[in-house]
């Protein structure tokens, strides 16, 4: 077993996972409470959404959006799939929330010294795109919306006129990319307990689905294997002492589209406690 040491060139990697991302919200609130920052942060899907509030230093904003306002606004529902072709009310989440309901601090975000990268899947190439923006409000929203656009239940989203979907299709845990960017040591926040692997076997996506995007179909047809390989990499680097992980210690009872506020609150609190346990000896004196 190697030994992890924090330094100036440590990155922060945030997995997605839909509403399981409330665990990450708890971790990031702990980091903000203790004024812990990283030079490089990369997030996917829910990790990208949570990461925005971390970069803008808005402690509690993600918790408010994901837990406190969930019942009131009912933004996850099958009814949206029929009315908006999206299981999420994306107009509410990506326009009303950041502009009016839980305003996003763009000024702090744009001036933050932390780099923030959000992962999307390019429908044309079937590959992950790693995008960042510290200038355009509209493009920031386009990127995070694309990163969170779940396949099959959300419409394709365009960034720079390129069709995109959820980055988790290809790269749910973008540790390898952080390393490629020069961050050889990373703190990785996961939303599943240690030992978890997808047991579902990959099935070839039929040609009538996403018929204009054969490379996307290929990516969707191997997403379970890709995710398990990313978890293998996490375990390998953790064993070598090159990364530190924060992940749920209990079996996660929260589904990707969970609406039970009590379950979400419990998972948020676990995230905060896990971060405290793992990081106290590193940062808090």
Question: Summary?
Answer:
The protein has helices at 22-33, 46-55, 61-68, 70-73, 78-84, 90-101, 106-111, 137-147, 175-180, 214-220, 223-239, 261-283, and strands at residues 10-14, 40-44, 115-122, 128-131, 157-159, 162-166, 185-189, 243-246. The protein has 285 residues and is α/β, with parallel strands linked by helices. The radius of gyration is 18 Å and the shape is globular.
Order of SSEs: EHEHHHHHHEEHEEHEHHEH
The count of helical stretches stands at: 12
Which residues sit in consecutive blocks of at least 5 with pLDDT less than 50? none
The largest sheet is: 8 strands, mixed
The overall average pLDDT, rounded, is 93
Number of strands: 8
Produce the secondary structure layout.
Blueprint: E1 10-14, H1 22-33, E2 40-44, H2 46-55, H3 61-68, H4 70-73, H5 78-84, H6 90-101, H7 106-111, E3 115-122, E4 128-131, H8 137-147, E5 157-159, E6 162-166, H9 175-180, E7 185-189, H10 214-220, H11 223-239, E8 243-246, H12 261-283
Parallel strand pairs: 1-2, 1-7, 2-3, 7-8
Antiparallel strand pairs: 3-4, 3-6, 5-6
